[in-house]
Design a protein that fits this description.
The protein is mostly helical and 243 residues long. The chain folds into two domains: 2-84, no CATH class; 96-241, Ferritin (Up-down Bundle), CATH 1.20.1260.10. It has helices at residues 2-5, 9-12, 18-27, 30-33, 49-52, 59-64, 73-84, 96-126, 132-159, 168-174, 186-213, 217-241. Bound molecules: fe (ii) ion.
Length: 243
Amino acid sequence: MASKTTKSKAAKSTKKAKSTTAKAAASTTKKSTTTKAASTTKKTATTKAANSNGKAVESKAASRNGNGKATTQKSTEATAQAAQNGGSAINIGIEDGKRQAIADGLSRVLADSYTLYLKTHNFHWNVTGPMFQTLHLMFEAQYTELALAVDMVAERIRALGYPAPATYSEYAKLTSIEETPGVPKAKEMIKLLVEGQEAVVRTARSVFPAADEVNDEPTADLLTQRMQVHEKNAWMLRSLLEE
Ligand SMILES: [Fe+2]
């Protein structure tokens, strides 16, 4: 039995306690002996308490049981923050207001990306003329990439603790790209897509200061990737318009 429990990182990290910890861990539910117990979250870090005596392994179970003594001050703070955040306590080193500013900016990037996705798909369907094959395929590559990109942007917003806008009405309010009524000629489609690609770049660039200010590297990385893609797409589309 003891050998089983040594599988868990929790048991590994508590060599000093050895058999005592093993017994304590073994006596708890399976969950507490899994690697989840050894996860890096501060809540589960209280498994350290199990090193000193067998009573421990109190963290989650004790909290759930309403044992006030076992609830650490940090978990109280986390609970208060969780209440403010509507249930999700986030402590990634960026204060709430700053995270919100970044999430708002990313929401505009998302709205631009989704609007450009639809416009590009529209033109893929409706383009005509001697350049049909070239444009039909080029637009397909671009909207396919955008379909994946919107997921990345939306999930970054979620990781920052905010809801990702996901309705046409929200996108219409947030985007800097205008819808195109009717079916333009092929050359006009290209022009409109150059403008759309450039619009996403400008929006993404405008979010950088907020991300930089708080060393939000994951957001900065995402924005960099998006700007690279859209600047390249704009160049390729623009090239089609040159004589
Ligand atoms: Fe298609």
